[in-house]
């Protein structure tokens, strides 16, 4: 056998080994399964939503024993993934009265949207829906906005009329749709989202990013698939 043939066979063998190693790595890092698939968003009529003075949005039953803080950007792919995987499990805990969630929405990815202000406008839309006062409506709107309707970074995003249409499907009244369509809360949302990002950076420093979930001042390890259960035991 010639040396050229030997080298060629060796190269093929190395390539096959590389493919096997890459496949093994992939098999060892399966994507987490969707938790409580089929439950949907929070839908118990007793769930309330409150737009707080600092622009954060509190979703849950009044006497929920545990409240966690979510920092999210409406474009953030990892935020969408968190909602897709854990959102239905969280919704069930909210319906059961075991958990409340305070959404502290940020807008640091505005420049990754084609309109250059999508995150801010989406935060404003969330605030408009929260002002409507219906927990189930807000939960459905938030779920849609972060999963099936979430724009990709750098891609086409949603205008205010499209955001209002999502709110309409979620069950929001006309006053909320007008709030979204006219951009009535955009300036306030920009201020609130910037302040929320400043607070997140103060807590985490250079590692600040979304999604970040806190139980009080403690950051939760959301890579642990049992983190929601651990909060509500």
From TrEMBL:
Q: Which SUPFAM superfamilies match?
A: Thioredoxin-like
Q: Which Pfam families match?
A: Thioredoxin_4
Q: Which domain of life is it from?
A: Bacteria
Residues annotated as domain Thioredoxin-like fold: 55-230
Annotated protein name in UniProt: DsbA family protein
């Amino acid at each position: 056998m010639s040396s050229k043939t030997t080298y060629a066979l060796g190269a093929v063998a190395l390539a096959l080994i590389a493919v096997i190693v890459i496949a093994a790595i992939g098999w060892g890092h399966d994507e987490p399964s969707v938790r409580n698939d089929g439950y949907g968003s929070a839908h118990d009529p007793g769930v309330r939503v409150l737009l707080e003075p600092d622009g954060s949005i509190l979703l849950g039953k009044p006497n929920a024993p545990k409240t966690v803080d979510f920092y999210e950007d409406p474009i953030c792919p990892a935020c969408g993934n968190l909602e897709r995987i854990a959102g239905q499990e969280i919704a069930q805990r909210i319906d059961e009265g075991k958990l409340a969630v305070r959404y502290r929405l940020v807008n640091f990815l505005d420049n990754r949207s084609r309109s250059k202000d999508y995150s801010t406008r989406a935060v404003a839309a969330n605030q408009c829906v929260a002002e409507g006062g219906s927990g189930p409506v807000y939960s459905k709107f938030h779920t849609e906005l972060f999963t099936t309707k979430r724009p990709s970074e750098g891609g086409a995003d949603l205008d205010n009329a499209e955001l209002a249409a999502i709110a309409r499907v979620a069950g929001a009244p006309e006053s909320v749709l007008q709030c979204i369509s006219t951009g009535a809360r955009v300036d306030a949302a920009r201020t609130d989202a910037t302040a929320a990002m400043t607070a997140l950076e103060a807590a985490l420093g250079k590692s600040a990013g979304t999604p970040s979930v806190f139980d009080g001042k403690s950051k939760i390890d959301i890579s642990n698939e049992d983190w929601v259960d651990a909060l509500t035991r």
